[in-house]
Amino acid sequence: MGFDGSLFHDEDGRKYFLSMLIDHRGGKFFGGIMLQEYSPEKGSLIGEAKLIFEGSELGITEGPHLYQRDGYYYLLTAEGGTEYGHAVSIARSKSIEGPYQIHPDNPIITAAHEPSHAIQKAGHADLVETSDGKVYAVYLGARPLTERGRCILGRESCISEITWNKNQWPIQKGGSKLPPVDIDFFHKNEEKKVWELLCFENDVLSEHYQTLRIPTEESWIKYEGKFLKLKGRESLASTFEQSLVARRVQSFQFEYTTKLQFAPRSFQHMAGLVMYYNTGHHYYLFVTYDESKRKNCIQLIVTDNFETKELLDAPVELENEEVMFKVVMTFSKLQFYFSTDEFNWKKIGQACDASILSDDYVREGGQRYRPAFTGCFVGVACQNLRGGNIWANFSMVEYKET
To answer: With contact defined as beta carbons under 8 Å apart, do 153 and 249 qualify?
Structure first.
């Protein structure tokens, strides 16, 4: 029927399921908000599904949430699409089935009218009441590198305090529609943790890290002492079994460092540091084997719109099996480095364009590359395209916001 499902628990004990309605006729797609009763006893929806809200003039109505307050049902929706027209809309009714009256100053949160604002694409909100009686909206937002440009950090979680005006309509505290950049919510004396020395502790992967599509299993990932060990598997272009462990990039300026021990036996053996958006968009700094010189070497590649290119005219030769890699991101620029002694760092390749690892750039590639909601990741990976067993050992994995 649609997506963005949400449950509402009424004061009389009845329960309801809401979702947007997909209307495929005439290319419309977004058909409004549906409501249907849910029976916990039967474990199923019951009764007739009803269209309760067709949306405001902003259109693209989705993400419904329903609340009850002072005799009204408040219907919160996302409208305007998830790009730069995104907005938080609200309507209310005395009856759960409507008709719903749209907020007289709708939308209540948006940056669509202010392209220079730091936080854009605000929408898909939900409301929560805290123990001290305050109400907050949590919602999606994004921070572009330039005015309405690319958002390399992807969609981020935002928060605003909500108050109620004299007519019992919700508004942001202070009355502005713009998502606040700073709010008096977090304790000022709490220092944000911006670094971590290892991506695992006590044989458990850090909560900051994720694997791609598949869970961690000892068949391909192990923890031995100070080492995170990855078994070489399929290429970074694969949509099946990759040995890739990465974490979200959460700052426009950061450094990521790792020490690698690796003994490749073929040019089809690779391991190293990856800046990753998806299978078709990533940078990869890796160690492999040069069979003509019988030495390990370093290469840097970029995959852009599913086309892969080597960025070094000639691989950098290594004398042993241990090397350190580092990437430094400064807004739209990425610079890769390597070191063989942990102290002296050498640039490898020219500065790269970080913005190709953004939702916006991937969407520019056309319908083939949608959806694009993940943001950029940084991590480590290992490949074996030849068969047999090959493992890479990573240590000193460090993410540091600068």
So the answer is: yes
Question: Quick one: pLDDT at residue 388?
Answer: 86
Residues 108 and 25 in one domain: yes
Out of 37, 234, 241, 401, the active site residue is 241
**Neighbouring residues of 197: CB distance < 8 A, sequence distance ≥ 6:** 396, 397, 398
Instruction: Please tell me whether residues 166 and 288 are part of one structural domain.
Output: no
- Our count of domains for the chain comes to 2
* Domain of 77, in residue numbers: 6-172
| CA–CA distances in Å: residue 394 to residues 244, 385, 402 | 12, 20, 23
Residues 126 and 271 in one domain: no
Amino acid letter, residue 90: I
CATH number for the domain spanning 49: value is 2.115.10.20
Question: What is d(CA 66, CA 73) in angstroms, rounded to the nearest whole number?
Answer: 7
149 shares its domain with 232? no
Residue identified by tokens 């305090």 is: 161
Cα gap 255→327, rounded to integer Å: 6
Report pLDDT for 45.
97
CA 7-70-41 angle, to 5 degrees, is 30
pLDDT tens for 191-234 read 555 566 778 877 788 889 999 998 999 999 999 888 999 999 99
How far is the C-alpha of 54 from the C-alpha of 126, rounded, in Å? 19
Q: What is the pLDDT of residue 201?
A: 76
Is residue 241 part of the annotated active site? The answer reads: yes
The Cα–Cα gap between 180 and 186 comes to 14
- In our burial notation (b when 16+ CB lie closer than 10 A, e otherwise), range 203-227 reads eebeeebbbbeeebeeebbbbeeeb
In terms of domains, do 123 and 226 share one? no
Full DSSP string of 214-258? S---TTTEEEETTEEEEE-BS-TT-SS--EEEEEE--SSEEEEEE
Q: What is the mean pLDDT of the segment spanning 90-95?
A: 97
Pair 58, 116 in one domain: yes
- DSSP tag of 112: T
